[in-house]
Amino acid sequence: MIETLLLQYLNMEHADLSEIASLLFQIIHKLTADYRMDRDSLKIYLKEHMSEKIDRILNYINHYYYEPLSLTDVAAHFQVSETYLSLYFKKKTGQNFINYLNEVRIENAALELRGTDASITNIAMDSGFSTPSVLNRYFKKKYGITPSEYRKQIEESVKNDAMKIEKVEEVRKSLYDRIEKRIQDSAVKEVTINVRRGYIPWMNPNKIIDIGEASVVCEAAIQEHILFLREVLSIRYIRIWNLFSEKFMISTDFSGRNFNFESLDRILTFLYRIRFRFSWILENATE
Questions:
Q1: What is the second-level CATH architecture of the domain 44-158?
Q2: What is the mean pLDDT of residues 82-91?
Q3: For residue 209, what are the β-bridge partners?
Q4: What is the C-alpha radius of gyration for the chain, rounded to an integer number of angstroms?
Q5: Nearest in space to 124 (alpha carbons), one of 59, 137, 115, 6
Q6: Range(s) for CATH 1.10.10.60 in the chain?
Q7: Are 116 and 155 in contact, with CB atoms under 8 Å apart?
Q8: pTM of the model
Q9: What is the mean pLDDT of residues 201-214?
Q10: Top-confidence residue, 145 or 263
C-alpha cells in the first residue's frame, strides 16, 4: 500500500485523488488494528516511562544542584512539559521541585560545614544559593539553627569526643602503671628447670633416686621399695622417664585423640599419698 501511495504521489499530475485517500485510510486502519494499545496498557507504559525519566531528573539535580536550576529549565532539558513534570515529580518524591532542590542544596551545605573551613558565603555559593541569607533561611527551617550555629555545635561535639578519648587513654595509662608497679613490688621467685636429664635446682641430690620407666611405679613391689627407701634413707624425690612409652599406655590408639590416664592416676595418687616430689624426664630413655 505504501509503495502504491508513493507511486501516486510521484505521478501527481495523473494521480487519482480518491485512490490516494483510500490508500491513506487503509494505512491508518492497518496501523490502528495492528499496533493500537488499550487504555490500561498505555497508562502502564506512560507511568513506567515517566518513572524512569524522573529517576534521571533526580540524578541530574543531585549532580547540578549548584547551578541556577528551575522547573522550566529541567523540563526543557528532558523534553517534557512543566505541568507533566511537576505532577510526576510530586508523586515520585512527595514534594515539589523547588523543595526537593533546596533539600539537596541544604544537605550539601551541611556536609561542607562539617568537613571544611570554608566561609558561609562560599558554602552558600557552592550549594547553589544566591546569597548567604537565603541559605540561612532554608537551613534554619530544616535544622532549627543557622549555619554558623550548626558549625559551632559540630566543633564542640568533635572537641568533646577528643576529650573523651584523651580521658580514656589517661585512665588506661593509669591502670597500666598501677599493674606495672604491683608486678615490680611483688616478690617473684624465678625457678629455672633444665629439661635435660639432670638435677632440678630445688632438689637435694642426696635425697633423689632414679626409679626408671614410669610404668614400673604402678607395681606394688616398686612402691614398697620406695616406701622403704623413704624410711631408711630419707628419700624425698624420685625421677622417672618414658612417660609416653607404649608400656605406660597414655594413648591407646596413638592417634592423639583417645587417651588412657589410668596408670598416670595411680602413680600420682601414690606419690601424693606419701608426700613425694618427682620429676619426669621428657625424652625417652635409650633402650
A1: Orthogonal Bundle (1.10)
A2: 88
A3: 238
A4: 48
A5: 137
A6: 44-158
A7: no
A8: 0.46
A9: 69
A10: 145
